Amino acid sequence: MNGFDEFGLIHHLVERVKSTHPSVKVGVGDDAAVFTVGADEDQLATIDTMVQEVHFTAQTMTWRDVGYKVVAVSLSDVAAMGGAPRQVLLSLAIPKERTLTDLEALYDGVAEACETYACALIGGDVVRTSGPFVVTSTVLGAVPKGQALLRSGAKPGDVVFVTGSVGGSEAGLRYLLERPAAVPSDEALQLIDFHRHPEPQVAAAAILREEGANSCNDISDGLASELNEIAKASGVRLRIDSAKIPLHPATKNFARRRGEDPLAYAWYGGEDFQLVGTAPPTVFARALARCQSVGISLSAIGRVEPGDGVIADSPSGLEVIRPKGYNHFAQE
Fold this sequence. Notes:
It is a single chain. By secondary structure, the protein is α+β, with helices and mostly antiparallel strands. 36% of the residues lie in helices and 25% in strands. The chain folds into two domains: 6-144, CATH 3.30.1330.10; 151-320, Phosphoribosyl-aminoimidazole Synthetase, Chain A, domain 2. Strands 8-10-7-11-9-12-13 form a seven-stranded mixed beta sheet, sandwiched between helices. A four-stranded mixed beta sheet has the order 3-6-4-5. Strand 12 and strand 13 (317-320) form a beta hairpin. The protein is globular, with a radius of gyration of 20 Å. The chain starts with 5 loop residues before the first helix and ends in a 12-residue tail after the last strand.
């Protein structure tokens, strides 16, 4: 690896990530990182792994995209709890064919995510592997004590909400795999950005928590899967108005050119990393006003009822929405 041993490679790569956080007392360079923990905070921890040819290919992602996205995935989990990300750890399993240029680009993507969301890279590990390239991110965060947003707080009468638009990442993936010529260039760029550069909703999460949202989840495996997780954890039924699910025009146009329903991308596509959850009507109204004031899109898409599962009102009638999003072990 251009003359670097394991420790030289780590030092070379982490030098590309300049972001810091005031909680960090000792970062990369010792046996373990040292950081402070607020007495009035609960700590959050989450971990995610991306494997080449499973989660990404050279056709769908650049190495910078991979670095950004593997951190963004975990940042989104922290946001779903209403928390603020603080520290990042990164572990790489590197096959011989990967070049130093590839790894530098990956760490540039990590740096972008850390700088955008004000968190610090504090450690990790690199190993050689005979298998595919694997990168794992661990993100640590914090939330005011006793205020973490859970999936289990939805109550009948609540509004079901979602941030941003959904289905765009799935449309972007399909575009990148097929590159259809009929898609206008501006829409193609938007779809690619949805897939390669999702934006964890950290700012929206803080507003929703502060205003008193009851439950929250991030959309990693598709809206259908995330809604069913909330319904099951809370012991309620979520009734969704399909016409109110926010879809970007580029997503709708792409699906219609293919003769497909754009809602299927939203229900089952995943990797949008928007937030979906529930809140009492007055709480939702306050959160909506605050989100609008800072340019965050927040939409009411349904309500919580007694019962179980997820149902949707659509032009064809009432439909049961089952959790059919991506699942690594579904075939087993």
